[in-house]
Amino acid sequence: MKLDYLRVRLREHFVNPQLLKQLAVYKIKEEHLTDDITAEQVAQKVNISPLYFQKGFSILCDNSVSEYIRNRRLSLAGRDLRTGDCKVIDAALKYGYDSPDSFTKAFTRFHGITPIQAKLGEGELKEFLPLKLHVSMKGVG
Fold this sequence. Notes:
mainly alpha, 8 helices, elongated
């Protein structure tokens, strides 16, 4: 109960029209997910300090910026492996992993199956949908 109250108070503090407007204008776009993108770069684009942006993002989305990016990348990698002629090493490099081993470890933690199993159509892939923000403001009265 106390945690819910604290979360509501934090949302009231961090969620202001300016932040919402900036997040809506520059959400982390799908076409940038394969780029080397950081929370600091996104914060700079929306003219907010990195700390403030990361806290606000975490409160609004229940994920850190890096978790969101990692989860979206792993979701897209699973789709690429399942539907295309993509090799595991190609998917690893495309989605920002230095080696197939680190990619396989992260992929398996996220999806519960290995990239090879995904490529062979075995098991279910976990889907992490893109962020969609809808900003609505109403006056009092």
